Amino acid sequence: MAGLFVSFEGTEGSGKTSVIKEVVAHFQKQGKQVVVTREPGGSRISEKIRTIILDKSHTEMDARCEALLFAASRRQHLVETINPALQLGKLVLCDRFVDSSLVYQGIARGLGFDEVLEINKYAIEDTFPNLTIFVNVRPEVGLARVFASNLREVNRLDLEQLNFHQRIYDGYLELIQLFPHRIKNVVGERSIKEVVQDVILLIEQAWATHE
Ligand code: TMP
Question: How far is the CA of 210 from the centre of ligand 1 (A)?
Answer without folding.
Answer: 28
